[in-house]
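Quick one, tokens below. Sequence please?
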């Protein structure tokens, strides 16, 4: 009987933990999304930003050349 009570307490505690963890994750996701929106709004309002933040596109021949260079390194 004590083992059943302990199991019920564990199950309830696990459920409470899962509930609060999911709320915290959802809140953090909302914060990240808000930051992303504000950065996008600032970027569209002002200058395009620095070149370091822009995406870099590699062509397939560039990738192959870099693979060969990487393999040659000791």
């Amino acid at each position: 009987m004590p083992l059943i009570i302990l199991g019920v307490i564990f199950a309830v505690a696990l459920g409470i933990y899962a509930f609060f963890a999911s709320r915290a994750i959802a809140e953090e996701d909302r914060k990240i999304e808000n930051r992303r929106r504000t950065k996008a709004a600032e970027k569209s309002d002002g200058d395009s930003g620095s070149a370091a933040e822009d995406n870099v596109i590699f062509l397939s021949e560039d990738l192959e050349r870099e693979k060969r260079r990487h393999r040659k390194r000791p």
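The chain has two helices and no strands. Helices lie at 2-45, 60-72.
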